[in-house]
Design brief:
- By secondary structure, the chain is α/β, with parallel strands linked by helices.
- 39% of the residues lie in helices and 14% in strands.
- It contains eleven helices and twelve strands.
- It has helices at 35-47, 69-80, 106-120, 139-151, 165-174, 193-196, 199-206, 227-243, 247-256, 271-275, 287-298, and strands at 3-5, 11-12, 19-20, 24-26, 52-54, 89-94, 127-130, 158-161, 180-184, 209-212, 263-266, 284-286.
- Strand 7, helix 4 and strand 8 form a beta-alpha-beta unit.
- This is Aldo/keto reductase.
Length: 303
């Protein structure tokens, strides 16, 4: 029986020419901490083999304030620790603007990028993604804006987040000189949509990196309550016990085993939990074990 072996080796970020770690660390809960704590968490991620860091201008927003706080904290960490920025692949996102809620118009996105760079205290980011699709902006305008960002030297590569396969394909058709490097959907054993709606197939066809947000299903994999969640947790626990890791590591590994080579974006703000990310590479998946998790996730037998 063939088996799936995962390795911590870096892999291409789509066609961007940028190499990234197979696991990314997300900063949606990074705001509200000291620079020292922030630096400790980043160093823990480096020690676990993570080089890919994902943030956004909306991170830190609590419904009334805090817009940009995660980026600003990261910028202060960079300022206090020269050289730290050069050790990572840095991604950020824009296009959510409460209470509008979405704006991908050229003027807004260009201003949002400049604001992100000021908060981050950097002159460029390695990946800039449209955070959510703005239905009222023509994809041709979005494409020209993204390409101009790259031409300006402020952005090395571009991507989208929460786009449908059709929206992604349409935007890509208007890009002339810069390929989409990434697509960032929600994906976990409790959210299988990208595996079903064609997102993964499209990404494999066009060599686009998949960045999977909420890989633990918003914490439901770790704290299951419904029968479906408990069945998924039980299937993951069989594999976790076999290789001496915890359920979270098994979940990240399950996500990474798909041939789309999805990169889970892990959001834990606990240094000891970050250190355990490397455990994901300890698992060797048999097809039987991997499909057992999928069957539990589907809630019915495979056809």
């Amino acid at each position: 029986m063939s088996e799936i072996h995962l390795t911590p080796d870096s892999r291409p970020l789509g066609k961007s020419g940028i190499q990234v770690s197979p696991i990314a660390w997300g900063m949606w809960r990074f705001a509200g901490q000291s620079e020292d704590v922030g630096r400790t968490l980043i160093e823990a991620a480096f020690a676990a083999g993570v080089t890919f860091f994902d943030t956004a201008d909306i991170y830190g927003f609590d419904g009334s304030g805090g817009f940009g706080d995660a980026e600003a904290l990261l910028g202060r960490v960079f300022a206090a620790s020269p050289g730290l920025r050069d050790r990572m692949v840095l991604a950020t996102k824009g296009g959510i603007t409460p209470p509008v809620p979405y704006d991908s118009g050229r003027d807004y996105l260009m201003a949002a990028l400049d604001a992100s760079l000021r908060r981050l205290q950097v002159d460029h980011v390695d990946l800039y993604q449209i955070h959510r699709p703005d239905i009222l902006t023509h994809p041709h305008e979005v494409a020209r804006t993204l390409e101009d960002m790259v031409a300006s030297g402020k952005v090395r590569s571009i991507g989208v987040s929460n786009y449908t396969p059709h929206q992604t394909r349409t935007l890509a058709s208007f890009l002339t000189g810069v390929p989409l490097a990434s697509q960032q959907p929600e994906f976990s054993p409790l959210c299988l949509d990208p595996m079903i709606d064609g997102s993964f197939d499209q990404a494999m066809k066009h060599d686009v990196a998949i960045l999977a947000w909420s890989p633990l299903g918003g914490g439901r994999v770790a704290r299951p309550t419904t029968p479906r969640e408990q069945a998924v947790a039980a299937a993951l626990d069989v594999v976790a016990a076999k290789f001496g890791v915890d359920r979270s590591a098994a979940t990240y590994s399950w996500i990474m085993a798909h041939p789309a080579r999805a990169i889970p974006i892990v959001g834990t703000q606990n240094a000891s939990r970050i250190a355990e990310l490397a455990d994901a590479y300890k698992i060797i998946w048999s097809r039987e074990d991997w499909y057992a998790v999928l069957t539990a996730a589907r809630g019915e037998k495979l056809p």
